[in-house]
Structure prediction request, 377 residues.
Amino acid sequence: MSILRDSAVLMVAMASSIEMAYKKNSDFFLTLILHSDGVPLYKSKICSAWPILGAVVDLPPYARTKADNILLLGLWISRKKPNFHVILEKLSKILLKLKNVGLQMPKSNNIKIFFPLLVGDMPALSDMVEFVDHTAYYACMFCDTKGVYCHNGHCAIYPNDSQSELRTEKSFDRCALLAASNSRKRDETAGVKGFSAFRHILDVPLPHSLCIDGMHTVFLCHGRKLLVLYQAILSKVNVQYITEKLRSLRYILDIQGRPRGFSSVHKWKASEVRVFILFIGLPVLCHALPEDLFGDFAMYVVIQRLLHDQWRNSPPDSPRSLGHFVIDDTNSPPDSPRSLGHFVIDDTKQLYDMNILTDSVLCTQLRTVLLDKRQSC
Prediction:
């Protein structure tokens, strides 16, 4: 069984790639994360703006996201999606100079800029990386899993495939070269449509430099849908009990987006779902959910915390903990409440229709890539 175990190997691979890039930049430098997303300018959504932003990682978290500290590197305003090759035709010269030469400081050495990651939601990353849309058959940017069309949901779903392989730097470049040579065979290019405009700017090679924004992929996708399903099966008394518990909580000042009443969970924003799943969901639901569903939710929370916190505390610990958690858990009997296979396969089918196994689920905790073929935790 290699489902969540695969996420650990992916994170270890990303961490090792970034660590190697950091070692090459032994002098003093600043780290800049590139990000882009579309914002509609009018309610009609005919015209949209695509800013290319830079976030300085070296700033503390509370200052990093302030508008005054976000760098506006470029802006595309059009009715069509941006062509990043056109945008970076001039912008790349500036970014490459910052990367290779650095900022010229008086009476000091130049400060080089390090570009390790490209961040965005899946539609935005598809455009930035020259990749197929997130509804396509080869939509996963980290493995070569091929989707299956679901007539019921009218979408591509990604069942567990033990034959999948991790994408590597060489395989990604090979597919991009085939796509650039006008190869239209889907199985040859495996979702890659060409060379990314950011390819020469990033210090960490693709696909290890990709970071999917969890807002849409996790919290507004299966995270909120899971809570909506829980709310639907609970009695009105339990829903009211959860709402009163949420209202009685006393939050620290750092917590933003505090969840509203559980009866309106379908209207929760990503920040509310994030706070509930990562911090307060377990104690709030422990007396309301049935024991088997609460056990599954507890496992879901543990997985999300391990994936969410792995950059903040000790990078090697969380992937290793996730691997041990999966290995130990999959040794349990198949019908055990702690069995990860029971949670991912059996309970997923009970809670969700199979058409929910889309790329958002594939790229997070249900299935990412195969671990045991390449590395054991």
The CA atoms of residues 126 and 133 lie 6 Å apart. Residues 216-362 form one domain.
